[in-house]
Amino acid sequence: MMKDPKRKCFFARSLVTDTKGETIFNEVVTYFQENNVPLKNIIACATDGAPSMTGRYKCFIAHLKKAVPEVFCIHCVIHRQHVVAKKMSARLHDVLTVVIQVVNHIKSNSLRDRLFHELCKQNGEEFERLVLHTEVKWLSKANCLQRFIALWDSIVSFLANTQLGEQLLANKCDVFFLSDIFEKLNSLNKQFQGKDSDLISSKSAIDAFLRKLQLYKNNIRRRAFEQFPCLASVISDLQDEDLALYGEYMENMHEDMQTRFSDLLMMVIPTWVSIPFEVNVADIDISLQEPLIELQSDEIMRAKFKDGKYNVWKTTDVATKYSLLWDKAQLYVIAFPTSYLVESGFSRVSQLLSKARNRLDIVKRGDLRLSLTSMEPDIKKLAEQHQPQGSH
Fold it and tell me: Which of 117, 190, 303, 337 could form a disulfide with 202 if both were Cys (CB 3.0 to 4.6 A apart)?
């Protein structure tokens, strides 16, 4: 019997020699053969932007398509958005560099960090620490800049009569604009994350953000800052050339995103997949009309769809009762548009491992969950031995 679709990590293996696309592909083939899983069961593949994965002739994807010609391949949308976010004018890039230098200047020195902490307490700030920026795919720039803006007055006071302080004051408007725009990029990034992300939701998020960018550009050029709260707080300092720069930045971002996400934007998602109960049956392929009528007449399925808590295409009932529809719809609701699940899985494993054990090979440790479960009796026994007398 078919079960509900599950998302889990199949395997993790170390590459003994090189990291070429063919080597990676051979490791995948070996695993599938060892577990008697046909390669044709692969319907989609999401990869990062490494040349060994996405090259044209000798990469992993090229070898996979030779073995499974009908497979759908996509470059992780989070990786692509990360590249878009990094592309900015020289002036804005220099300003962002100054912000990162200020954060590092304060946090890299224990004495300065403590002094800044005390200054924030004296000023009654909501926060008392800055947030470090890290160059990862989760756009920590937004978190770093938001905290930076929240502590702006204390930072300027702390850096008074220093070169960094003067640079900050000279570029105040740019810093506040970057805080706003990266918050919007961060919001988009979060829409790509999560175990339920699929091609439909990713395409919708990208399309909506592109339309918003056009709106932001037009509004900011006519000095309507309702969508830019940080920038609105420094409206008196804004010059026309500043607004022109911000508008140009968003226009370039819009063009860059259209190019990088052209495959998703051009993808035609059948209406009967996104709104199966509202579409006119006469407008779809004749081979799917009968099963779609049966689905639309299924009151239980219709109730689940209206409730909004269920995706009807990800339930056992649809996959078994309406297999013809499922075969056509499964790509749009199962395919991974990102490498989020893999990266989050490795992040969790790295948190479980202590620094002293980082040299050990993760892939040879077996199931960490089962290992921890088997240790529970010993942990309880140890806790009882150290329990203070008279405690319950």
Answer: 337
Other beta carbons less than 10 A from residue 48's beta carbon: 17
Q: Which residues of the chain have pLDDT under 70?
A: 1-7, 55, 133-142, 307-310, 345-392
> By the 8 A CB rule, do 313 and 330 touch?
yes
Q: What's the CA gap between 271 and 251, in Å, rounded?
A: 30
Q: Which tokens is 123 given?
A: 């000023």
Token pair recorded at residue 19: 């990291």
Q: Which residue has the tokens 């392929």?
A: 285
CA dist., res. 204 & res. 65, Å (int): 27
Cα-Cα-Cα-Cα dihedral sign, residues 155, 159, 164, 167? positive
Strands (DSSP E) along the chain, which ranges?
44-47, 72-75
pLDDT tens digits, one per residue of 281-339: 999 999 999 999 999 999 888 887 776 556 788 777 788 888 899 888 888 888 888 88
DSSP labels for 58-76? SSHHHHHHHH-TT-EEEE-
Judge contact between 3 and 316, C-beta under 8 A: yes
DSSP H helix total and E strand total for the chain: 22, 2
**Nearest-angstrom CA–CA distance, 151 and 235:** 19
Instruction: Tell me if 49 sits within 8 A of 75, measured CB to CB.
Output: yes
| Joined tokens for residue 24 | 């990676």
Radius of gyration of the chain (CA): 26
**Residues near 260 by beta carbon (within 8 Å), at least 6 away in sequence:** 80, 83, 84
Other C-beta atoms within 10 Å of 100: how many?
16
The end-to-end CA distance of the chain, in Å, is 48
For residue 87, which amino acid is it?
A: K
Amino acid at residue number 15: L
Alpha-carbon distances of 142 from 77, 156, 177, 267, 374, rounded to whole Å: 18, 20, 11, 30, 41
**23 exposed, middle or buried (CB, 10 Å; 0-12, 13-18, 19+)?**
middle
Task: Output the six-digit token pair for 356.
Answer: 């002293």
Full-model pTM? 0.80
DSSP, collapsed to helix, strand or coil, labels residue 290 as helix
Give the 3-state secondary structure of residue 346.
helix
Which pair of structure tokens corresponds to residue 198?
């699929």
